[in-house]
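Field notebook, page 187. I keep forgetting to write these up properly, so this time I am using the form the group agreed on. The chain and the ligand, adenosine monophosphate, are recorded exactly as supplied. Prediction of the bound pose follows.
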Amino acid sequence: MFNLILFGPPGSGKGTQSIKLAEKYMLKHVSTGDILRSEVKNQTVLGIKAQAIMNTGELVPDELLIEILHAVMENNKNAKGFIFDGFPRTIVQAKALDQLLVKMQVSINNVISLEVEDDEVVNRLLKRAEIEGRKDDNTETINNRLTVYKSQTCPLLEYYDKQKKLYRIDGIGTIDSIFKSICSKLD
Ligand code: AMP
């Protein structure tokens, strides 16, 4: 099994790159943001709990994410590996993921961090708001999502760096040039 995590602030392009990587390396793409948005759309119990939190840009509680993680792993037992996009976002989530992978006798192989500066991600997300109309792509929520990323998720980079699994990739450039940079590290 080959398991990969993609980190990056909102708007860094991790969703786009994850889809391409999943296709190339035949991995199951797990975007917790997409899963949560679908739960909200279907107004499930989980979706109703998550909705208001997502609209502010804060993180949905760890226990709900761990519940999602368990369901994903349970439903994809034959996967060749996973690419985690937007998960883990806290140390508690990273440890829960490690524990689950240990049980499966596998681990995280590599971690990619897409590095993009604040001004650039704000511009990208405001453009995306015009196209996709995502509720959390407004200036106030974007700023909060960036703050939350720095305070709660960035410490995880150190966690994986200590394990010698982390590659930092410049997230500025064309989709294809960034994809090539990631693949050259993984290959
Ligand atoms: P994303 O599409 O990854 O930017 O996620 C959109 C929103 O979903 C985030 O701002 C959070 O409110 C929530 N979310 C997604 N993934 C997680 C996670 N791993 N932990 C907590 N909240 C999450």
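OBSERVATIONS:
- The radius of gyration is 16 Å.
- The chain has one domain: 2-117+153-186.
FOLLOW-UP: compare against the apo run.
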